[in-house]
Amino acid sequence: MKFKALLPAILAIAACTTNPAGKNVPVYLDLSRSVEERVADALPRLTTEEKVALTHAQSKFSSRGVPRLGIPEVWCTDGPHGIRPEVLWDEWDQAGWTNDSCTAFPALSCLAATWDKEMSLLFGRSIGEEARYRKKDILLGPGVNICRTPLNGRNFEYMGEDPYLAGQMVVPYVKGVQENGVAACVKHFAVNNQEVRRTATSSNLDDRTLYEIYLPAFEAAVREGNAWAIMGSYNLYNGQFNCHNKRLLLDILKGEWGFDGVVVSDWGGCRDDDEAILNGLDMEFGTWTNGLTGAASDGYSNYHLANPYLQRIADGRVGTKELDDKAARVLRTIFRTSMASEPHFGSFNSPEHYAAARRIAAAGTVLLQNNGILPLNVPDGGKLVVIGENAVKKMVVGGGSSSLKTNYEITPLEALQEAFPAADVVWERGYVGDTSTSYNKVDTGQDLTDSRSAAKLLSDAIAAIEGADAVIFIGGLNKSGGQDNEGTDRADIILPYGQDAVIEALAEAVPSLIVVNISGSPVAMPWADKVGAIVQGWYGGSETGHALADVLTGAVNPSGRLPFTLPKALADGPLKTERQYPGIQEEGQEWWQEYYDEGVFVGYRWYDKQQIPVQFPFGHGLSYTEFEYGNAGLSGKAIGCAGSFSPGQGEEEVLKVTVKVSNTGSIDGAEVAQLYVCPPEGDVERPVKELRGFDKLQLAAGESGTATFSLPRRAFARFDADAHKWVVDPGQWRIEIGSSSADLRTSATVEIR
Ligand code: GLC
Questions:
Q1: CATH number, domain with residue 407
Q2: Is the whole-model pTM more than 0.85?
Q3: Annotated catalytic residue: which of 30, 78, 90, 266?
Q4: Does residue 76 belong to any structural domain of this protein?
Q5: Distance (Å, rounded) from C-alpha 24 to C-alpha 45?
Q6: Which residues of the chain have pLDDT under 70?
Q7: 266 is a catalytic site residue
Q8: Structural domain includes residue 345
């Protein structure tokens, strides 16, 4: 008995090593050992209570470590485009610190619009440095939910309508964040494509749609990006809540994809004791025992993975197998982040970060149409008239959990005044939209009130354009309720606040009106053929105004491409029934039910299939210069790649494609060469074409370069739900390459047998 009692102590001593400093330290503290060795050594040292404490929150954004062993707490922070201001221990409201105003980076729809993996790496590294400096271990972002409906209030936080684009653009971001010893927490897993009743709706869809459209961006983040954390989403998938959805978390994420990190619940997304224990949830936050709505004394021990868990273990109703797996994953996260073997220090509000924000925001700006009025040239002593609320409204505050407190936010008007110091830059409101200026007690300090009538606002704007050298309308959406805002969806894609009428009236009076739409989601542009130029701007963060002015003045040659289709009208889209969106109530069902009846036909896949004309197509974006394409060159052994393979396979390259691209204009610029794969006719209906490659080339005037694409076997595959396999059909395939999904310049055919 004596020996047995001593065994843990003996094992602990045996597990000690003398580290380079010569001190006797336990393996889990020995920075020369691997993460896995340190996890294996730490886990058996923990009591059951200590393991359970690792799996749930102790405050709004933190969970307990193991104080007795010197293992630190885990601190999470929003969001995907900046480090959220510190909040009170158990409140959403900010804590009023004076040292937590961050660099606000562009929202991710802007990053996606750059179609530039280098911008994504720069973004991830920069925001990762800010998170590390603020001593945060898990960054609650990026979000990669597919833009299934233009109405989704959180499209601005996501990366568009195509799973390949979202997947390729999220990988460098994840790597950049994690280089700083901060876990990227990719969200919201999965099929969380709307805000309406997001905590009470089951997304119901077939496996082909799930595997071809809604999983690939998450799969890329995990299997290529090696994401250390994933956030379960509020909704249900096929009838089970996603923060403890067995199919998504155990079968697919941890099973097929071999994910070794932590599954974090969304705040309040954990809804059931037993499922939380058994179905793969590792860290529970924000649960509705007053952990979400308000402070409660010791509300945290009521969490599903707290006392109820301990009670089930004590009663023998569950073992500790699942607990050991959860605790090991949390320890692994700690040893990858706050206890990483190589120290990281990060940086905050650095000039480099503001420069990165400006560069990314400019690179994501999309020139949709230009009759030559851009780039803008206002002579000294000239007059530039700027009209619209979004020329002055600060947008970093608001929108939900991604709202930020930033050191500064340059508005478009300020930047245009800076750009033309010797001109008379006049601003008129044009319309009044949203006059709110605060979120969670963070306030922009602006006063946006205006008592004029709509008619007066318009007549004042029309009067102001007298003698102007150029007129720019800057409008769009904002971060308030019913706009680009977490928790709500829009009701339509028509511009709010009567902006269409203002634009039409201005277009009558101005020969070449320039319209800038600032939004994170598609809007309708019925006046497109009445204006001179149209620019899609985004929520660009601290440097949003400078970035827009850089593009408008030509300081930066626009190279952004649309990450989602701009339809002419909402009704043209694939969601035709309540069943499809926003969901219905069904007899005997506790939750709302939504059916993805459109299957894989979302975004351009739908408009291609129905041959519906759109305002501006997926991948569209102009430049101030022109590009020409040569012929496509193909090499590889695609010919023999027909057949089927299991999920997780098919990564080997089977086809290499190259194409020469030349900048034939007089201005340096960047071209996003896009490659689409077009399958042969078959008995399974497939999209006409699917994006399977893109390459952004920076080309000086007159310079030529070569766009290269490497296609794995998976690039040709569809998912066969019955066989649970990817399948490559034989036949004549077309490879189309061009400047957008609707501007394809060269093609080649591939015979696959
Ligand atoms: C929110 C969001 C999630 C965010 C979390 C913490 O409800 O859905 O994206 O990270 O809760 O704020």
A1: 3.40.50.1700
A2: yes
A3: 266
A4: yes
A5: 17
A6: 1-15, 18-22, 289-298
A7: yes
A8: no
